[in-house]
Amino acid sequence: MWLKKAFDQVVSDDLILKSTFADETAIATFGVGKNMVASIKHWALACGVMHEVAGGYQVNSLASEILRDSGLDPYAENPATAWLAHWQLAGNCIRSTTWYWLFNHVTAPTFTRQELEEPLGRYARDLDPKHRLSTSTISRDLETCLRSYAPRAAGGSPEDFAEPLLGELGLLQEVHKGQYAFRRGPKASLHDGIFAYALVDFWNREAHGQSSLAFETVAYAEGSPGRVFKLDEESIAQRLIALSDFTKRKLEWTDSAGLRQVHRKDLPKEDIKSMIRRAYD
Asked: For labelling, which of 98, 119, 175, 264 has a CA lying 20 to 30 Å from the CA of 30?
């Protein structure tokens, strides 16, 4: 419920004041400790609920449409909300380097947290050579990331028993104690509207101005829906074929002479928002 807790602090014009997270009253306002107040702010930024502006944090219009009391999913109960949060973390890499790296760079069939620490550290240092990262920081971030998708079977505190928002997605499993594996294949709870939104978001960032995108790019490119959602080729192809009817031919799949592509027409912002709204019908 942390994303909802952050959203509920809107004062007017979808703005949250910076003082909301900094004042001494923040602990009482959010009903959590000081460190958790900072965490709520971090996750609201990382998941795209809000972004920093002069004087505060502007809540994004899509987040407002979902999380307001009369919105599409005010209590984050719909799988679509969890898939959107995952896409923001693992597809966009805003304040979520570990998430992005894990889903886009780790290809081993199974892995442990300890095996990931060194390569993640190298990746982070390559991104920012001036920033010094301790091994314990890397280890804690990996533990947080992995437990977001594969929570402990039992724990010593109420938080350990709580199912995390991303745990319901079935993207990662703990096959043995401390050993993890991705679950690749079709994702029944991933609505075509969320897939289409992610595809357009990826397209706008990586191939802006191009009217077509190769199947291999959608399936395997860094930051692509295929990689971030851990979909197999058949599942991706089925979803791309369905997009023609779903988007009224704004996105259209072609397979001619072995050349598999998605073509796009002009997609206004309202059309893109409509894709997401349909995931909550």
From this structure: 98
